[in-house]
């Protein structure tokens, strides 16, 4: 029987301090007080003082609460029985199903050896031209969706999840509104995808420490599936809530804040999660799509900013559309050479022309005379927005490329587009 | 040291442990903290009374108060010897493929492997003779390593003159076998193997003198070589917001740069990018040698998810290896991606030490640390008269893409060229997104300076006109100004922008750049006559199209001249001979 400690010396925020010996860093403890019990994790050792972060928060913890160390770190069970289930951030069932205890696996494990990774090579088809044509999603990519509150980022996430061809979907919800949680569940259930999904949900009203566990739990499970040769898609929403939870804990721990109150290791913390995206040499893969809401639509805010440096591109969701500027998939070059020979050209030319259209719009709004070229651009921009950018467009990439040529031919002469002559000869639609 | 110096852990917080010690310890000494199952490498970073603060290079889970730390008496060092090239190391010189073979998919903490292969045999050819006097860095013999003659040198710390007592005969040896015996001035005999260790945070200084970097380092990126050149032995930095193409630019440089050896230090960046280099380079051939590119490449890879303290060490590991190869009279290019992550690692450690923070919580010594890192680049004349160089190119990832932040500013003070990437250029898909008006270089490039100045003026004036046009509109702009604007856009489109995915356009050798730039200059200097702006615009659209096509034709192909005269013809048609 392990020793039980019964003297809590300090309670501040979600952190309590007890005096104990022989405790390992990051070890788990069970804290039992009259108001209930909760797991806690060692976050600092100072002589015989042990700082514990209580998952359920410190509310209701008495100074004589019982603290029992468990001799292990945080683990998540793993088996196929996880599929179709919903858990909290600390791994308790959130649905009415039984608890699962098979194959406990430590969370937040070491990073994959880069020598065991392969170059991503498979495109993930989504049926959204702004993604498939312009910023192709690639298996094992980590990509955030930058957005602001009020945009339909969760429906977009759900739609990509439904249309992407993957074996397992792991959803990590952080600080979700309860409605949003129910939305995801309904969509997964209605489309028959719940049976290949695992959900770790932290809602806005749950203890903040549990929010910190969600990505680690989700990714540890994803990793196990990937090692079983499964292609896993991990959806995280919303990483800004995760970062804010980290900030909250860091401040109560009296750490020196670096930028707008966020801890100095924000980059490393985010990176250690995102870097779990992987395509293994001889096993499956993990693709991560994560929503990051930008407070005040400010991309230089520390959370989107650090995220942008970690991830392989980003999608901007603004006004219900994926913005062509700023959105980027850094891995698209690895796959778009194999789709169709005109893919890259269409991608670049259409965006360059769209940029010119934006300039023209600016000129127009200032009341300048529109030249012949400007008129063409205006027409082009309008068509591009309606037939390509609109999120309701749902066509496979081949159709989308054809549509691209059609829009170009409707608006311009071949020489005006800057497309290499070799390609225009082959693809330029002949006017009827 | 006879007995091992052992201390006791009294506190753990993040990757920092507090250790009580009884015997003397050294600043930056390496110690191993024991969890019972694994010994974790750590480095002393502060001493107060009899408590030392150590940063642990691994995850500290399971360390406990009362645990033991054994000090080694050594500073953090790397092994230098034949077999480094083509390797892939983490920040502490653990060979990653070997780790993968031993531990599988994931890195295992507390697992350290020797950096150099111990069983491989090298063909040694003696150079020094018995009785000769020789000092640090002097060549004892050579072994072939890929395409290079790898010099086996007198250890760099033996700065006094030594006498060669004996030297091994030509033949095959492993790195641990003795290849020479030397005698120091006090008559003590010392044995030399092919391996020597060197503390990473100290520059290697076994050379005759430092020279001023003068020769251009051709990267085959037009905007760099012509407009913002880098010199061999120089330093440059590439700051830019995320998604502006820093890493792609580094990758292209690592492929095409005209140097002997490229060291890629992926410091706190994505693993995926390293994997691209890792998997592609063995397949690619180096046009200069016809061998695989991997034979001239060394990768130090401490990606963002690997422990932070090792990230700080990784840039030093990389630069030490660069200096080692420089000592052989080779030209080395070190690409560090990204120095901001390294600075952040400093910040994290500083925060844990509860030091008084400077700007944006970076430590106050940030500037001097960055300066001393870049100062390790340079051209040197070795003791045998040959020259070697280390060129350092570092990317910077400024928070929010704002160059006013401390890391960018500290870096700009010490580098010789600045390639600032801009968000607006990358948004408009104008790659490489180096800003032609904000960037600068203090080195000399491949093209004539006068021509470059002329082209830059056109870019600047063209930009001014385009700003003005936003206010007064096209109709308020004179045709001359409008032409200036079109010419600026033309240079930008056909010369500054380069298609990294076109086999020909991706790499422009120096002679092609010179030839091409002369042609462009001629076009720029041509006075043209247009009756109206639309005609001018459509002419330049056509000209741009033709020139871009020309960019994609190899110089020795027959179409090359044909396209050129087609361009010439088109320009003649609009030339104003008045």
Features:
heterodimer; A: 432 residues; alpha/beta; Rossmann fold; 3 domains; ten-stranded mixed sheet; seven-stranded antiparallel sheet; B: alpha+beta; OB fold (Dihydrolipoamide Acetyltransferase, E2P); 4 domains; 14 helices; 32% helix
Short description:
The complex is a heterodimer of chains A (432) and B (578). Chain A is an alpha/beta fold and 432 residues long.
Beta-strand portion of chain A reads 15-25%
- N/C terminus separation of chain B: 88 Å
Residue-averaged pLDDT of chain A: 90
Number of strands of chain B: 28
Which word captures the global form of chain B? Answer: globular
Amount of helix of chain B: 25-40%
Reported for the largest beta sheet of chain B, the result is: 10 strands, mixed
Number of beta-strand segments of chain A: 23
Q: What is the CA-based Rg of chain B, rounded?
A: 27 Å
Binned strand content of chain B: 15-25%
Residue windows where pLDDT falls under 50 for at least 5 positions of chain A: none
Unreliable spans of chain B: none
Number of helices of chain B: 14
* CA-based gyration radius of chain A: 25 Å
CATH superfamily of the largest domain in chain B: P-loop containing nucleotide triphosphate hydrolases
Q: Can you identify the CATH class of the largest domain in chain A?
A: Alpha Beta
CATH architecture of the largest domain in chain A: 3-Layer(aba) Sandwich
Structurally, how many domains make up the residues of chain A? Answer: 3
CATH class of the largest domain in chain B: Alpha Beta
Largest interface: A-B, 83 and 82 residues
